[in-house]
Design goal:
CATH superfamily of the largest domain in chain A: Response regulator
Oligomer: homodimer
Distance between the termini of chain A: 45 Å
Largest interface: A-B, 52 and 52 residues
Number of domains of chain A: 3
Number of strands of chain A: 13
CATH topology of the largest domain in chain A: Rossmann fold
Radius of gyration of chain A: 25 Å
Strand order of the largest sheet of chain A: 2-1-3-4-5-11-13
Order of helices and strands of chain A: HHHHEHHEHEHEEHEHEHEHEEHEEE
Helix content of chain A: 25-40%
CATH architecture of the largest domain in chain A: 3-Layer(aba) Sandwich
Largest sheet of chain A: 7 strands, mixed
CATH class of the largest domain in chain A: Alpha Beta
Strand content of chain A: 15-25%
Number of helices of chain A: 13
Chain lengths: 380, 380
DNA sequence: TATAATAATGGGAGCGCTCCCAATAAACTT
DNA sequence: AAGTTTATTGGGAGCGCTCCCATTATTATA
């Protein structure tokens, strides 16, 4: 049915090997020959069989994207669609394909080993949120190249993340600077790393300014709008004057609850979210939120993973991507007079040291993208 | 690195072929032998190499899922996440994997042929919205098994869809029954099939009851909330007393616009959406909408595609999945007295014949799922 | 018990590619 | 011009599996 290398070879009067060289951009081909072969390939719309290539070369140019499904918020939170989009685009750009696994909540051994050993995937991007995820351990023990979206609390693995602690510390500071005294927070599930980190940032910010932690103002959400709504309803009796929600979707839920309680935003309660998902600017009032470049992180994960695949045994990578506080109306900064100078341009008026102390920076900081801090640590 | 069939064979004292038989559930193996081999496989956590299997057998158990990206609403509309989820789950259940392509808006030849000829994919699920999509034509001309999510206007291809015309006819009728006289509609982009069909249903409903089509009450949206909002703002000067939005996300946008115009829902303007996405019940007031089982459609697509792959040359399948009008507050049916009997239970008080007249029903209607009408047509 | 069926197993060929090495062609040296 | 070096090219082997056919073990039948 489909053409083979041999067919193309015959049609262009060269050997199988030469065609292979042309396809793989091997330099040892005379320009004239290359053109001749290329024309036939173009002409016949030839695609090399990836299964055969995978078998022979041990490399398929397929990247596995593993996302823990079962979490309800996959449906309502644009996080995963954006991530998938970023990954997919980058794969296209780098001539790779993406294999998608929405893994069951409790990965069975079978699923994991299927992902690891099917011989089809060159590497894996894992968007694992959990503190203690069996698949991370399996991957870590295997020799399959992989990268996490989101740092891991204990294992030294390749990852790409935002500095959640620093970012939410900054977000909370922003609320403190608006003279808010009773700042509540709606966290994500406690067994998730990002969620934990964002809570830590909140704690640090309070601590930075010697504000007491009021435990009645801390509530665990589940990333969903309904969860944010429910949490805010339980928070309101304790009269918070601000709330930091660990993602935008919960912030939207909180906003509904605040409205229903006949309170004004931001006058009575200021709200800050996290993510800057597309709908953040469409809440009433528009949501102040910590932007993280989800799509870029997906793309960066692909590029880094490909690099890891190309350079096995290299140092493990920790990549932190910059966040940015996007100030809209919901936090009150635009209506009340600011304390200091042009804070809206640089809302951070202090220096927070890099948080991820696990790793020592020995970096190769020279990077085309100044937003990205790359660091390498200990040889794997 | 990874184990091979040969390794398992050696370890269990049989031949490569026998192990292969065990793995592929071939019946010609003595039960005792099967158990022995199975134990070793289990024990070593063996996974056959899919690339090799693909090469040798010409079948990989990989299904391609192609989604036109670039459309902005991928981010904000839960449609695609739900579809992906449905497809992925069904693939897991049937021991298949899914390869994801978010195709660029204008598929380049290269992309298409990459999808078709990479030799990795047994079949393709295509969620193509466009009236005239080059990739559909390519697939139709190729011998790659594929199924469309959403019918095709001209080509006779395998597809699974809801009866959009009938469903929106029913939704519009529901508004008419609430004594609405100036029913507006916000459609999707005109070059998309589902969008076209839903508009046709709207037209038919008006026609059914001899209501005039007021062209100033018809506006094209782009499936997004912002689009729905903008459209509604332009609609309001013409004083509609109801609006049928072609999806829930646009309905949500319309609701915002209506609120801002200080109009009441449903008293001044009734709103009906389409999809019943998770957030439909969270609008203010909760949205009446036509539910389509997106996730099930994804799963059904997988199952049908596998069946098509297993039975090449069989008749082409047209599967229509039932929709259901979910009545909440936004349409006014729950506050004004109903015209007739228990309409909320069966809001359709007339018989609309099946719309898809292209195909003659010769069906194998006996199906475990009564919601699904299967029909087969003309041998391919 | 011999013989014909049938059940169970083993091994070769080959899927379409890459990799390696040998063979040939072209370009330099002296 | 002969000898080297270097740039191209061709072909064999083999990746790990399935498929087919030959072989052997087992059972049924005469």
């Amino acid at each position: 049915m489909a053409l083979t290398l041999e067919d193309i070879a015959r049609l262009s009067g060269v050997s199988r090997s030469t065609v292979s060289r042309v396809i793989n951009a091997n330099s040892n081909v005379k320009e004239e020959t290359r053109q001749k072969v290329l024309k036939v390939i173009q002409n016949k719309n030839f695609q090399p069989n990836l299964a055969a290539r995978g078998l022979a070369a041990g490399r398929t140019n397929i990247i596995g994207l593993v996302i823990p499904a079962g979490v309800a918020f996959i449906f309502t939170d644009p996080y995963f669609p954006l991530l998938i989009q970023g990954v997919s685009e980058a794969c296209n750009a780098h001539d790779h394909s993406v294999m998608l696994w929405l893994a069951e909540p409790e990965y069975e051994r079978r699923t994991i080993s299927q992902i690891l050993h099917n011989g089809l995937v060159d590497g894996v991007i894992l968007s694992s949120a959990l503190m203690d995820d069996p698949i991370v351990k399996s991957l870590h023990e295997s020799k399959m190249p992989f990268i996490l979206i989101g740092r891991h609390p204990t294992l030294e693995v390749n990852y790409i993340d935002v500095d959640n602690i620093r970012a939410s510390r900054e977000a909370t500071h922003h609320l403190i600077r608006q003279s808010r005294k009773r700042i509540a927070t709606i966290t994500g599930p406690h067994n998730q790393i990002a969620s934990y980190d964002r809570y830590q940032g909140y704690l640090k910010a309070l601590n930075d300014r010697n504000l007491p932690l009021l435990s009645e103002l801390v509530l665990e959400g589940d990333w969903t709008e309904a969860g944010g709504y429910a949490a805010m309803n339980r928070l309101i009796p304790y009269k918070p004057d601000a709330v930091f929600a660990a993602n935008d979707v919960m912030a939207a839920g909180a906003i509904s609850a605040i409205h229903e309680a006949q309170l004004r935003i931001p006058e009575d309660v200021a709200v800050v979210g996290f993510d800057d998902t597309p709908n953040a600017s469409r809440t009433q009032p528009p949501l102040t939120t910590m932007r993280q470049p989800i799509q870029s992180m997906g793309a960066l994960a692909v590029e880094t993973l490909i690099d890891i695949i190309d350079h096995p045994g290299s140092d493990s990578r920790s990549i932190l991507v910059a966040t940015e506080l996007v100030i809209r109306e919901s936090c009150g900064a635009l209506i009340s007079k600011p304390e200091g100078g042009d804070e809206s341009k640089n809302p951070v008026d202090y220096q927070i040291p890099p948080v991820n102390q696990l790793h020592q920076s020995v970096g190769n900081p020279a990077d085309e993208n100044p937003n990205i801090l790359r660091r390498r640590v200990k040889n794997a």
